[in-house]
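Thread: quick sanity check before group meeting

JM: Hey all, I'm pulling together slides for Thursday and realized we never actually wrote out the predicted structure for the chain we discussed last week. Dropping the sequence here so it's in one place. If anyone has concerns about the input, flag it before I start.
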Amino acid sequence: MASHIGASPRPGSVPAPIRARHGSVLALMRLPVLVSDHRRELNRIVIVDDHPAFRAWARAILAADGFRVAGEAADAASALAEVQAVRPDVVLLDVQLPDGDGFEVADALLAARPRPAVILTSSRDASAYAADLARTGLPFIAKEDLSGAAVRAMLGDRA
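JM (edit): ok, ran it. Output follows.
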């Protein structure tokens, strides 16, 4: 599987899609989006999702794989506050939140300093968000495919 994570794309170019083992497009990811302002190892994560059961499951899956869950949030407003308070390396961000759009939250997070790496997630397939994923270049993991290995792949094995 070819990966453009960590590669230096030509100026003005957009890397080719990175494909999962099942052939689904994860996202068009550009290097600057995956680079966090934090330390070299990215293992402190905030989980943002409006479903408590998913947050608990994601916490268990990621913690079992060596991630330190630094916080959780259930909506856009609390996500911005939580990220500001705990300054995680990575934010796992649901695309659909009760009080806002995950892409707008991601834009705000990426404009802030320090800037965390942002990975979007949803119960829907990436194709439902193709235009926004292409616009932002953010990585995407379907909720059913979430694992520590998948997050590490999105981060270029820096986790």
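AS: nice. The chain has a mean pLDDT of 80. Residues 28-154 form a domain with the Rossmann fold fold (CATH 3.40.50.2300).
JM: adding both to the slides.
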